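Quick one, tokens below:
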């Protein structure tokens, strides 16, 4: 540990949560791609160039952040290990792979035709991380879900639903259904746990308060994933959509009330 009165090296000050920037920009690329290509928004006449520019910016940002964090792994592996065992930062180890899934979903048409092997390559590390994280949630002593539950835990759930969505778009069947089922099972457990968090749970730092909106992300992506898997926006997709809508309205009201004080 370095003295608190000295400035730490840049790599030590570079957290795994920096991949959140990649998630934000790559998801914007998906948004603008949808606005430009979806039939209901055709009247907006959004140029595909916007989504292309955002996609290439997200790709460059993901490569840059990944390269910097790989240097941290090489030179400060102990710091990375401490992050992995941190109850909040551990969840951001899913972020690089989710960002890659977002890049695949938002890819321009010229590079949108992908082999199924790409999906398996991206989901394999998410699956391995889930075996570790979910196992600790169930029987991890001090890392049981009841003790470490916080909104950033939704990142692992979002990874399942985004993977299911991409797999369904690529024409796969069993893999997307598998990850959707795993995500749904753990989302229900996490949702209930977060609603009845114990007073002894770790308080989320103020700078990470925006991750509360991950409450909305999981059911939103679940709605799209189920609609794609099932081939239509049926009752199941609508249920997930309305859950996301209600949570969004609740969070906006809570945040506005907090800032008004």
């Amino acid at each position: 540990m370095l003295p608190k009165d000295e400035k730490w090296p840049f790599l030590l000050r570079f957290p795994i949560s920096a991949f959140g920037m990649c998630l934000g920009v790559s998801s914007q690329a998906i948004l603008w791609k949808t606005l430009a290509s979806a039939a209901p928004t055709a009247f907006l006449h959004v140029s595909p160039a916007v989504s292309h520019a955002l996609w290439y910016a997200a790709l460059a940002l993901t490569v840059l952040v990944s390269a910097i964090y790989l240097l941290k792994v090489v030179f400060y592996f102990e710091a990375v290990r401490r992050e992995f065992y941190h109850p909040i930062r551990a969840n951001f180890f899913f972020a690089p792979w989710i960002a890659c899934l977002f890049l695949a979903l938002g890819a321009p048409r010229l590079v949108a035709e992908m082999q199924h092997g790409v999906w398996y390559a991206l989901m394999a590390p998410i699956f391995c991380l889930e075996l570790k994280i979910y196992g600790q949630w169930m029987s991890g002593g001090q890392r049981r879900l009841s003790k470490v539950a916080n909104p950033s835990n939704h990142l692992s759930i979002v990874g399942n639903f985004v993977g299911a969505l991409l797999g369904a778009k690529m024409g796969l069947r069993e893999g997307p259904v598998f990850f959707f089922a795993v995500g749904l099972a753990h989302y229900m457990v996490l949702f209930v746990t977060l609603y009845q968090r114990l007073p002894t749970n770790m308080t989320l730092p103020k700078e990470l308060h925006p991750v509360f909106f991950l409450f909305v992300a999981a059911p939103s992506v679940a709605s799209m994933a189920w609609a794609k898997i099932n081939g239509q926006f049926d009752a199941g997709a609508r249920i997930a959509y309305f859950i996301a809508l209600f949570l969004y309205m609740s969070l906006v009201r809570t945040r506005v009330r907090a800032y008004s004080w």
